[in-house]
Amino acid sequence: MISQDPKEWTILIVDDEPDNLGVARKVLQFNGAEVHIARNGLEGLSVLENITPSFVLLDLSMPEMDGWAMFKSIRSKNNFQQMPIIALTAHAMSGDKERVLEAGFDGYIAKPFRIQSLLEEISYWLTDFNNKRV
Amino acid sequence: MQSFHEVGVPLDDLISKLGDLIQVINPDGQIIYANNRWLECLNYSEADIEKLNFLDDILDKSFWAIFLAEASNLHCVECASNIRLGLLSSNGEHIIVEGNLIPRIKNNELEAIVCVFHELSDENSGLTELARMFSMSVDMLGIADFEGNFVKLNPAWEQVLGYPLDELIGQAYINFVHPDDVETTIQKAEAASLVQTTQTFENRYICKDGSVRWISWHYSSYPDTQRIYFVARDITQQRHDQEVLQATKDRLEAILDNSGTLIGLKDMTGAYILVNQEFADLFGNGNKESLLGKYDDEIFPKDIARILIENDYRVIQTGQTLRFEENLPGDDGLHNYLTTRFIINNMVNQAYGVCMIAKDITERKLTEMQLLTRNQAVEHSPSGISITDARLPDMPLIYINPAFEAQTGYSIEEIIGRNCRFLQGTDREQKEVAEIRQAIEEERPCFVVLRNYRKDGTLFYNELSLAPIHNEEGILTHYVGISTDVTERFTAAEQIRQQNEALVEMNNRLTLARKQAEDATRLKSQFLATMSHELRTPMNAIIGYTEIQLAGMTGELTAEQKSYQERVLANANHLLELINDILDIAKIEAGRLDLIEKSFNLRNWLEDIAAQMEGLAKEKKLIFSVKLDENMPEYISSDPARIRQIAINLLSNAIKFTNEGFVKIEILKSGETTWKLIVEDSGVGIPSHLQETVFEEFRQADSSSQRKAGGTGLGLSIVRQLALMMGGNVRLKSQVAQGSTFTVTLPLIHVKHTKQISD
């Protein structure tokens, strides 16, 4: 059961675009969450060796290792089964959301996001995740 | 009486003056002495005597036998008396004499013969003449005795049999008769010896040179004098002529009988005087004689006879040889004859009779008819027929029918004698040609379609069926070809083939084009996806940072800063809206907008939309109402995301362009197969002249209205395109300042609700 209070969150944001990373980190930190960042999948995986975040916000298109590969890598490990992975992506054309959810992601948030709706959507997907785990 | 010697008359003088003919000859016939009367009578001088031989020069040869017979007896008698002989004078005169032969014997040898003749000729001139006639006759005259010996023969015998008379006279005539005729000759002679008779008879004699001659005898026998007198004639030539004539006649008859024709000869009255065996076999039960003397109407039925007689009449009238086709009865009905009729003349060139020679042509006519029929069939065959002679070098064409001429455009004169390969022109490299060559080599039939060229150079397809013809010995003699111009069929087939090829080609191209299109679409989609991603990414930063500032996360903003940041945000939002719509349109036009059909609960769907849009309407203080037709099924099958897009676009527009009054969304069942989504407002409305173009991209009722009301101008275009994609349409009803009603009609697909299916 993951808390709905941003202050209790430890979040890993993986995104190659510094501005996007910056917006999301700013909003979440402003709301009290502990934010770790990584610039691609490989960096993300190395971060995960040291910390276990409440959830991961994962961009899909990245150099070195993209979101899909990192997702597969994480899901192939037993110790992260209770960690939601939410796609945070500018792939927002019709069908993209379905594609992401079908691949097994625990949530999908399209860029550009509104700072207000970012928290709401995270909350929505966490609730969804919690419900599925019950 | 005194002896003569004592009388004193000189003997020489006496003898010389005697009226008798006196001669003395030695045994060889040499004349030793002849008196004056002798010389005078036979017209010789004294000087001639020494050179004369009685036998050779004086005695008529027909009397040799008599003289020699008497002379040989002179040994035994003192005197031979009353010997009658024929003598010849120096000028050839016959002199008949009669007298005595007195031998003079010395030392028991005949030394000389003294002949004392008196001339009978003078006393009996008839005898002389007879003797002359006898010796000059060309017929063979003679006398034989009853012992069967020749007694007297005339010189004609020498001519015929080649024996000198002295080898014949005194000989048995039977010795000279041909062995085959001996018996009958003896019989005749015996018969003649019994009574006096006159007969004729023919037999063969063998001549001195071994040849055989036919002799015809006319003879009379005199039993009282035991003599047979005869006149004989050499009839060898006559017999030979007769035999030749007979042989000729037999040969001619054999020829006539075996001529394979009917031959008949009629005299000028119309009576048959000659028929051949075939004629007799057919009409006289094989008996030629039974037909002779008969007339046509006694042999043939009346109507047939009448025609034959008429034909004869025409021959006689014209005097020419004429030919007729005539019918004559046969065992199996009437037969057809080709008859030649002509006049035969006698030796003095007078018409003697009419001859007919008739050939049965029934079978030939039948064959001719069959051949004619076949020939006509070949001539009129719609297929080209050609015959080549396989025994001549290079197998020339020897026959073509008119259809072949028509097919090729060449006349028969231009074709006969040539090998048919000229029809290929220069187009020799055809595998069919090799096929024909192979078939000809193996003497078997073949069937090919060749490219041939007419005289005018145009191409035609010749479907050629080639068959070998062998003679009775099994030797290939001809080839017969049947040609059909299959150009039409072939070009049709060729066209179909070409069309097929074109279709295949087109298909390949289409496949390629589709692949290219797919590639292009894929690239386009990828491009769109990339563009979408790449446009959104900076938008995220712009909107994000602006909102962060406006939210005061970076400290308080001055009123002016806040105002500017709000303008940035509004423009960013508009830009984002534009990006979304452009991408949607692009995606629809790229054909990459896939409909995802599923069953969903219509009420939930509608309430969801209402919840989303109600806030916006309320912000503008508009009455927002939602209505769902109770007749609509609870669940329908469609693409809920896309109809949501339609509904939201229409509602967004309605709210944008309505400043007071209401905005309404309604769902109505329309018949069994469609349903309607209606969005109605009380807004500015759209002038009628713009209602047609309002669905086009970047069109708004008033280009200035965009500025007032916002919006991209793409919303209605997207609505229409989505409606069309889903098999529906959209209609607009509007009045300026009164409001607008958009009605989207979509196909209705009922679904039975199951737990598994939900939105």
Task: Map the helices and strands.
The complex is a heterodimer of chains A (134) and B (759).
Chain A (H helix, E strand, L loop, with lengths): L9 E5 L3 H13 L3 E5 L2 H8 L6 E4 L8 H9 L9 E5 L6 H7 L4 E4 L4 H19 L1
Parallel strand pairs in A: 1-2, 1-3, 3-4, 4-5
Helix pairs in contact in A: 2-3
Chain B lengths: L3 H4 L3 H7 L3 E5 L5 E4 L1 H7 L3 H4 L4 H5 L5 H9 L7 E9 L5 E13 L2 E11 L5 H12 L3 E6 L4 E4 L2 H6 L3 H4 L10 H16 L3 E9 L5 E11 L4 E8 L1 H22 L4 E6 L4 E4 L1 H7 L12 H4 L2 H17 L3 E9 L2 E13 L5 E10 L1 H19 L3 E6 L7 E4 L1 H7 L3 H4 L15 H11 L4 E8 L5 E12 L5 E10 L1 H64 L8 H31 L8 E4 H18 L3 E6 L6 E4 L1 H17 L5 E9 L3 E8 L21 H7 L5 H11 L3 E7 L3 E9 L12
Parallel strand pairs in B: 22-24
Antiparallel strand pairs in B: 1-2, 1-5, 3-4, 4-5, 6-7, 6-10, 8-9, 9-10, 11-12, 11-15, 13-14, 14-15, 16-17, 16-20, 18-19, 19-20, 21-23, 24-25, 25-27, 26-27
Helix pairs in contact in B: 19-20, 20-24, 21-22, 22-24
